[in-house]
Amino acid sequence: MTEIFGVPTQALFGQLLIGLINGSFYALLSLGLAVIFGLLNIINFTHGAQYMLGAFCAYFLLNKAGLGYWWSLAIAPLVVGAVGVLIERTMLKRLYRLDHLYGLLLTFGLALILQGLFQFGFGASGLPYPIPAELSGGRNLGFMFLPNYRAWVIVASLAVCLATWFVIEKTKLGSYLRAATENPQLVQAFGINVPRMIMLTYGFGVGLAALAGVMAAPIYQVSPRMGADLIIVVFAVVVIGGMGSILGSIVTGFGLGIVEGLTKVFYPEASNTVIFIIMAIVLMIKPAGLFGSQK
What we know:
The protein has eleven helices and four strands; from the N terminus they run ββααααββααααααα. 43% of the residues are buried. The chain has a domain at 21-224. By secondary structure, the protein is mainly α. Helix 2 (47-64) crosses helix 8. Helices cover 71% and strands 3% of the residues.
């Protein structure tokens, strides 16, 4: 068996694959957080619960409506995004002119309520969700075995992240969104419905979390605590990349997933804390984050 730096090749690439899988979800979730914070200035602590809702929506669609994985990829983000729009219209819009702390406390409370309700109804253990038949099995690459579903998750997450970055940074719609956060009165004077734009932007960010939840269901199972276990790490990813930075969320999400995977190979004891160590170092050197701008 060949080795790299004293580590068996199969073990090394296996952990790299796990790191890329985790990085895919870090990137998708932190991207949704960055969209919401960068364009709406809201710290959305409900994001983990909305990720969980996406997974449960897929579970219900399969077991109650007989709709499989591919339908869930389309329907779950729309359903959870609509719930997010309802939250934004009824609660969050009242807090836009207040300190960020109020929005954080409200969304944190909502996350605890949603998690508690689902844990009461379904228990704390995970519910199985099958891998779609089209993506079952895998390929032997010689140095490792690559499951088809995990390869799909990496490619799909990267495609969604890059498409979102392109729309926000390179299109006219994205320029309107960015302008609305800087000077909403001026944008409204051009006939653009800013409240509707804010509402849809929040719904889109929530939909990204739900999409990640659907893709995570066959890997991690469906559990009320799946979002709570992940959201703290995702917030660290957002802080390292730069609050509100779309590109920072994508690059940092995938990059930290790989770093975490490599740490599990070379120094397993630090694998659970390496992201927070990196966050502390980045904040000491560049408080705005790697891709953030100091205002």
